[in-house]
Design goal:
Helix content is 37%, strand content 22%. By secondary structure, the chain is α+β, with helices and mostly antiparallel strands. The protein has one domain. It has a two-stranded antiparallel ribbon. A two-stranded antiparallel ribbon has the order 3-4. A hairpin with a 5-residue loop joins strand 3 and strand 4. It is elongated and about 50 Å long. The relative contact order is 0.19. The structure holds zinc ion (ZN). The site of zinc ion (ZN) has 6 residues, from loops.
């Protein structure tokens, strides 16, 4: 079991109404998405909170994995 929460997809809505699927990793990296309407969408990770959440959550999953392994999963 290898979980990487940074691959979790979230959707970002452009002002034109189109939805874009991005990963949390893209948000943490503050990537720029280009919509087919011509608008560039700057992904925002305010205060680096997404990046921190990814790191925390991955750590939690890894800890969980170690616990499960200890019980023979
Ligand atoms: Zn658009």
């Amino acid at each position: 079991m290898m979980v990487d929460i940074s691959k979790q997809k979230v959707s970002v809505k452009c002002g034109c109404g189109r939805n874009h699927q991005v990963t949390l990793k893209d948000v943490a990296a503050r990537k720029v998405m280009r919509c087919s309407c011509g608008v560039n969408i700057q992904l925002e990770d305010r205060n680096g909170s997404v990046k921190r959440s990814i790191a925390d959550t991955n750590k939690s999953f890894n800890d969980l994995e170690k616990v499960l392994r200890r019980f023979g999963w």
